[in-house]
Amino acid sequence: MRIAFSAMGARALLRGPHRRLLRRLLLGGGWGRRSAAGPGALSPFDRQLKRKQKEWAAARPEMQRCEYLREEVGSRIADRVFDITRTFPLALDLGCGRSYIAQHLNKDVIEQLFQADIAENALKNAIESEIPRVSVIADEEFLPFKENTFDLVVSGLSLHWVNDLPKTLHEIHRILKPDGVFIGAMFGGDTLYELRCSLQLAELEREGGFSPHVSPFTAVSDLGHLLGGAGFNTLTVDTDEIQVNYPGMFEIMDDLQA
């Protein structure tokens, strides 16, 4: 089942066996509305453009060719979920893509899973999983769920694209139950270091200056403060290094685009 949310309200298909569940979990009137940016707020990412890119990528006939990193991270997040000796009645996969985490989990750990992503094509082409799932088209920056809803929230390689990470972490904390768990993975500050340096050196040599060509990433050292500021406690923040070798710059760019 898929439900779509627009910026100013809902385009929700509340039919079928999930109707009562959805009405209980979704916010009432006024939810999903975009609030005005605060003073000095920056928006480095065009979310509408990102939606189009994800829709295009998820509809490609050979989409699996470039999913090796998300598959690997999804598997590692699932391992962290299995490390917790409890069953989660209701979970949310935020920025799920084609369901890279759920495929590694089972009904013994998660009884019901909501999957949220901005790209409908990603949800349509989701990888199979034995867990009962409800797919929701929603922006990670505007979560349309009531507070104290989920026992578990997971997110794999999605949060580096949000414009206001502290606000998003606050929202995740809001929709979690008091004893809820959040497990997420995002690209750290040293990601694509070689590509960033190569582009800067080349532009300095040719132009005498440089402009950013690689997205900004959050420093790992800042994540603990951001999570603590959002209200999380009993924090664990660590770093995994995954090295992928490419023959050249254009091969990297091709995979990044896809």
Automatic annotation (TrEMBL):
<feature type="domain" description="Methyltransferase type 11">
    <location>
        <begin position="92"/>
        <end position="183"/>
    </location>
</feature>
<keyword id="KW-0809">Transit peptide</keyword>
<dbReference type="GO" id="GO:0016491">
    <property type="term" value="F:oxidoreductase activity"/>
</dbReference>
<dbReference type="GO" id="GO:0032981">
    <property type="term" value="P:mitochondrial respiratory chain complex I assembly"/>
</dbReference>
<dbReference type="InterPro" id="IPR029063">
    <property type="entry name" value="SAM-dependent_MTases_sf"/>
</dbReference>
<dbReference type="Pfam" id="PF08241">
    <property type="entry name" value="Methyltransf_11"/>
</dbReference>
<dbReference type="GO" id="GO:0032259">
    <property type="term" value="P:methylation"/>
</dbReference>
<keyword id="KW-0489">Methyltransferase</keyword>
<protein>
    <recommendedName>
        <fullName>Arginine-hydroxylase NDUFAF5, mitochondrial</fullName>
    </recommendedName>
</protein>
<dbReference type="GO" id="GO:0005739">
    <property type="term" value="C:mitochondrion"/>
</dbReference>
<comment type="similarity">
    <text>Belongs to the methyltransferase superfamily.</text>
</comment>
<keyword id="KW-0808">Transferase</keyword>
<keyword id="KW-0560">Oxidoreductase</keyword>
<dbReference type="InterPro" id="IPR013216">
    <property type="entry name" value="Methyltransf_11"/>
</dbReference>
<dbReference type="InterPro" id="IPR050602">
    <property type="entry name" value="Malonyl-ACP_OMT"/>
</dbReference>
<keyword id="KW-0496">Mitochondrion</keyword>
<dbReference type="GO" id="GO:0008757">
    <property type="term" value="F:S-adenosylmethionine-dependent methyltransferase activity"/>
</dbReference>
